[in-house]
Amino acid sequence: MSKQNALVTGASRGIGLAIASRLKLAGFRVLTPGRSQLDLLSDESIDDYISKLKYPIDVLVNNAGINLLGSIKSLSGSNIKDTLQVNLTAPLKIILKLTPTMIRRRYGRIVNIGSIWGLVTKPDRITYTISKSGLGGLTRSLAVELAPYNILVNCVAPGYVNTELTHKNNSKSEIEKIKKSIPLGRLCQPQEVAELTAFLCSKKNTYITGQVIAIDGGYLCL
Fold first, then answer.
1. Are strands 108-113 and 212-215 parallel, antiparallel or unpaired?
2. Could you say which of 49, 128, 160, 219 is catalytic?
3. Residue 189 CB neighbours (<10 A)
4. In the chain, pLDDT over 70 holds for what percent of residues?
């Protein structure tokens, strides 16, 4: 049997890197374009990249995202535009480009990497919460429309993950406070997000679709 092909955006580090590595371990041929190949801020770049793909894509993981902090008092036009473009519009455009082949082959797995901040929110997360909430809505809508073609669409919503970005946005003392607010008492590891994502991408997943699955150590239970 030939390998299945997976496309993972934002796979240079953190969660995306862990997902790409896990899918390779599972036997997928994994494409991990960098920004020079696939610039999600540019519709032309998206069109150009997908038009040059040599293989049909069986699995898509929309992982790339940006989190530009800003309150209602400080939001700029570029903050709003760029966050919505990268986190919501670009994933939709990629899906629109790839699903015709999935429909024709009657198979596909799509996983959008959202966030618990698409389910709840906190100060300075206006555009991020809007974009990740929209990603959840996109997931549900696509799941309904693509179900007749055996294309399953889900959204994984991580909580606090032990990544470079988390440590960049929070001091050591803030990290310790965050850990205490999580029932499991620790940050999520990128590999744990990757394991969940890999299952949703696999042929073992035959009936889960349209779901936003939080992986947060119980944070949202409180």
1. unpaired
2. 128
3. 14
4. 99
